[in-house]
User: Fold this.
Amino acid sequence: MAQAYTILGYKVNHALIGNSLETNWNGIEKAAEATFPTGPMRRFDKKDWDDLWGSQYDIVTDIACPFVPELIKAYPNAKVVIVQRSFDGWWESFRKNIKDKVFEFPKSNIIAFISTVFLGVRPIQSQRKALFGLFDVRSAAGINKERGREVYDEYFRNIREIVPPENRLEYKIGDGWEPLCKFLGVPVPEGVEFPRSNDGAALNDQTNTRLRMHMSNIGNLSKSGILGKILAVYVLLCGYMIYRWLLR
Assistant:
């Protein structure tokens, strides 16, 4: 869908497009903390959402999904395109391309540590907070298929309740350009086939490509020998934490 919006001339925010460092992960983390607070926290207002996405993009997709109810409050006249896949297909894609990569140990922890300390971004932490909030759990174990079914059904039911019919389109992959363009009020692109690269295999390829791009940013640190020192410090910290745990 992100590719379709781009073809139509919109500027789209999609977490699987572009360099990972171009994504405002720190802003997304603040949005997660404000949307799903675990303590006293000011909710995001329209200015906050403008600063995160509204002033830069016409359309937000995947990474914005946990925040859609809050975004609708900030932009009550926004058009919402609902693309609801079968739960089983969605869950398998979500599990492989998001959940497993965000919580994979120790790989995700190493990426989180290096990204935070040396690149100044927090992609792992921000996604974890958004997922914990969306699923209303406190650990990765709680993000399971059974809970996923509940969250999935409740999420789409809630969106349909808060978005008036005139502002939403129920779109199914395969419907082509006509309903989408009519809803958005734009002409159908002539001679352009509707993009169909959002299947599971393509999504996995995109996710892995984005991860490699992020790792290449980290890998640049090795040119000056910094990366080896970083990993050494990380190992020492892990060893120290285990030592303290054994002394408890």
